[in-house]
Recover the amino acids of this structure.
């Protein structure tokens, strides 16, 4: 096995376009896999064999289908979901009030920052909502202020004060 | 978080291979045994550092085309009670208390709801409203109209 094959496989996930924004048609196995794997992958030597057994299909089919769904952008990530707030690092949800005519330019300024984890356009006067991830509170505040200054748009910084529930399960 | 947990996060932050023996591949790349990797991952799940291991669907692609960020102005004294009741609803994926920014932004409670149509998502928001209306001064929703950037990091 080539020593960096793991990196190569994972980096495919990094570089993929996430801009598929239209519903796609899914077959039964694809639906079953998406439903099942919004739950937990077993911690065993051959976890996809166990999933295949549960769903009455083969390991190779499961691997093939999941890789294809990832390739097509139907799933955006496969792996552990870390709760980084339990470790080190600081996060915040921030918003900018961006003039409608200037969305693309401002988005490219904001997205340029590696600390911007995601960025969504929303139908409100506070229309650009993004998550900042930084090493510490000082860095986070500095990045937020830099974004406000560079874009010239009014901004609000809304770090979570309390989390009540996080868990996404969208049945298909 | 210990050194090995940090290494695992670094290596698996962007995802993991979908192959016959994915944990073995990761363990080899980290120069540890598969047993040690599995034991550490299990510990990280128990401590909450890992929420779960699995896939993240592109919710647009699987038909959940409407994503409403509902925002609520909740009386400070009622926020915990509201958080617990809204968090218990199965169609709410995240809910958080966040600071107000008066006068621009009066909302201190955020709950994300997903729907296959605008009507479905709005109906879910009305269900939240029925549940918490005595504690709520005003609310609105912000629909996502475009993903401008999305990376693997999920908060």
């Amino acid at each position: 096995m080539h020593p960096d094959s793991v990196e190569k496989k994972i980096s495919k996930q990094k570089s993929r376009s996430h801009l598929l924004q239209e519903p796609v048609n899914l077959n039964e196995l694809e639906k079953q896999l998406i439903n099942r794997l919004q739950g937990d992958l077993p911690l065993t030597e051959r976890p996809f064999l166990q999933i295949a057994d549960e769903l009455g299909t083969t390991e190779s089919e499961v691997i093939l289908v999941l890789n294809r769904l990832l390739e097509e952008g139907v799933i955006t990530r496969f792996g552990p979901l870390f709760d980084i707030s339990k470790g080190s690092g600081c996060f915040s949800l921030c918003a900018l009030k961006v003039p409608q005519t200037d969305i693309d330019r401002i988005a490219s300024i904001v997205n340029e920052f590696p600390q911007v984890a995601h960025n969504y356009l929303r139908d409100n006067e506070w229309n650009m909502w993004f998550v900042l991830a930084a090493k510490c509170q000082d860095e986070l505040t500095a990045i937020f202020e830099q974004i406000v200054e560079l874009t010239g748009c009014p901004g609000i910084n809304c770090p979570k004060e309390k989390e009540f529930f996080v868990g996404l399960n969208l049945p298909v | 978080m210990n050194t090995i947990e940090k290494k695992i996060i670094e290596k698996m932050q962007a995802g993991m291979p979908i192959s016959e023996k994915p944990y073995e591949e990761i363990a080899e790349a980290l120069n540890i045994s598969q047993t040690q990797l599995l034991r550490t991952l299990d510990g990280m799940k128990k401590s909450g550092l890992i929420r779960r291991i699995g896939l993240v669907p592109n919710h647009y692609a699987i038909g959940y085309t409407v994503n409403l960020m509902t925002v609520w102005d909740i009386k400070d004294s009622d926020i915990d009670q509201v958080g617990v009741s809204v968090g218990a609803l199965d169609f709410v994926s995240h809910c958080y208390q966040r600071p107000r920014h008066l006068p621009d932004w009066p909302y201190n409670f955020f709950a994300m709801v997903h729907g296959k149509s605008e009507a479905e998502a709005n109906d879910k928001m009305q269900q939240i409203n029925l549940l918490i209306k005595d504690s709520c001064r005003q609310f609105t929703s912000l629909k996502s109209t475009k993903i401008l950037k999305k990376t693997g990091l999920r908060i």
About this structure: Helices of chain A lie at 5-15, 28-36, 47-55, 59-72, 103-111, 137-151. Chain A touches chain B through 92 residues (CB under 8 Å).
